[in-house]
Design brief:
436 residues, alpha/beta, 3 domains, 7-stranded mixed sheet, 3-stranded antiparallel sheet, 10 strands, nucleic acid binding, DNA_methylase_N6_adenine_CS, methyltransferase activity
């Protein structure tokens, strides 16, 4: 009787084991189907999405295998699935001069809010102009220029990395990340010098300036020249700078023509912002646009727009950290660089820089008035004697031929004089100008 009971229990145990095996085989079969479906779908997904599919398949496999494994193996299965998910994420450890898991193309997306008017790459020549000063910082730190840690917290389209690499600076940190979130989390990378062209909208100029002076490191900020008249800058220059013992900055700007920036043409909102119709009513960016290719080091099939600031010019605000400032820096430049850098000028006072702003864009009414004057001039008719406010801008006079213009591509007039010219020409259109 006892033997029959044992035999019955043994048969039940064998049957239960077979059922468990069948269930395990069924789970594995379903898993194979899921994996095959995932692989088929992956052929139609983008490169980014295909990175996620293997992790999802591995995770699905771990879930199904729980039904066929003992409790002792469940923990190891979960760990395997977790490791598979981690392997599918973009690698965060990059070498010098590389972006953080993001391709440096003109169609890149930003994980932070942006203003279309801020989308413009810094020209290569602007970095060329500060190369001697970066080399001087490297020598003071007793490091090779290729090892100098350069930090640019504002990511645009990634060409800054290629520009700096061409100049021999390989250890550059410029990633597609939210600079302010990085600061809030305390994850600011270690750097030797801050080099950036910050956005001009909002309060970015003030925030990056405060970050720069607080770092007590050398900094080189490409900003509008009018920043030297801003309250936050003057307050630091006249009050806090003296208390902290910081040296006054020096200024470096182009000597022949203003910097022209590259705005990506792949972004519809940027195209709208930079269109001639919109640019005529936009301040400060209001210059003509030229469709060009990006710098050859920034290989891409997408074109960009060449954009020059219309009502102001951009110059470098420079602080060399512990290196002697002002007169000593200027003297070093003139002695060691001199005529080798004739395309740029370094001064101790921002007012000493050449004024190279692009001439302001005429309004449609001004262009119609000018065209009318040209027609009258070509027909030998007597034209209005334009007042001194608008003579240069409107191009009237005996030397002006049909279709000609007395405006050069750039003028050395101040912003106040240019505004006065526009005001004078508009008075003429309204019948308030003087005639003889």
């Amino acid at each position: 009787m006892m033997k029959d009971s044992f035999d019955h229990l043994e048969k039940q145990a064998d049957e239960l084991e077979r059922n468990q095996q069948d269930e395990a085989y069924l789970c594995h079969g379903l898993l194979d189907v899921h994996i095959e479906d995932a692989l088929q779908s992956s052929r139609h997904l983008t490169a980014v999405e295909t990175l996620v599919i293997p992790a999802a398949a591995e995770e699905s496999q771990g879930v199904h295998e729980k039904h066929a494994t003992s409790p002792q193996t469940e923990q190891s299965t979960d760990e395997t699935a977790s490791e598979s998910k981690q392997e599918s994420l973009p690698v965060q450890n990059h070498g010098p001069g590389q972006a953080c898991g993001v391709e440096t193309s003109v169609s890149s997306l930003h994980p932070f809010q942006t203003d279309p008017g801020d989308h413009a790459e810094t020209p290569f020549e602007a970095y060329q102009h500060i190369e001697p000063l970066l080399g001087r910082v490297a020598r003071r730190l007793n490091v090779d220029k290729a090892c100098l840690k350069i930090y640019d917290p504002y990511y645009c389209e990634g060409c800054m990395l290629q520009h700096m690499e061409q100049l021999g600076f390989m250890n550059v940190y410029n990633r597609n990340e939210d600079f302010y979130a990085v600061c809030a989390s305390g994850q600011v990378p270690e750097f030797d010098v801050l080099v950036t062209n910050p956005p001009f909208s909002g309060d970015h100029l003030e925030r990056i300036f405060e970050f720069a002076v607080a770092s007590k490191k050398p900094w080189m900020l490409l900003m509008p020249q009018y920043v030297a008249r801003k309250a936050f800058y003057l307050e630091w220059l006249n009050n806090r700078r003296a208390r902290s013992g910081a040296c006054k900055p020096v200024f470096l700007g182009p000597a022949l023509k203003p910097y022209e920036f590259q705005a990506p043409a792949s972004k519809p909102e940027v195209l709208l912002m930079r269109s001639p119709e919109h640019a005529a009513n936009t301040d400060p960016v209001s210059s003509s646009m030229e469709r060009v290719g990006l710098h050859e080091e920034c290989s891409t099939e997408v074109h960009s727009f060449k954009v020059a600031a219309g009502s102001f010019q951009c110059v470098w605000f420079l602080s060399m950290g512990g290196i002697p400032q002002q007169a000593a820096t200027v003297e070093w430049w003139r002695k060691n660089i001199g005529e080798a850098a004739a395309e740029c000028v370094i001064v101790t006072d921002v007012k000493e820089l050449p004024q190279l702003m692009a001439a302001p864009k005429s309004s449609p009414a001004e262009r119609r008035w000018k065209k009318k004057q040209e027609v009258q001039l070509a027909g030998g008719e007597t034209t209005l004697d334009v007042s001194h406010h608008g003579a240069d801008m409107l191009g009237s006079g005996p030397k002006q031929g049909r279709g000609g213009s007395s405006r050069s591509s750039h003028t050395c007039l101040s912003s106040a004089q240019q505004a006065s010219q526009i005001q004078g020409s508009r008075r003429l259109q309204n019948g308030k100008g003087k005639t003889r």
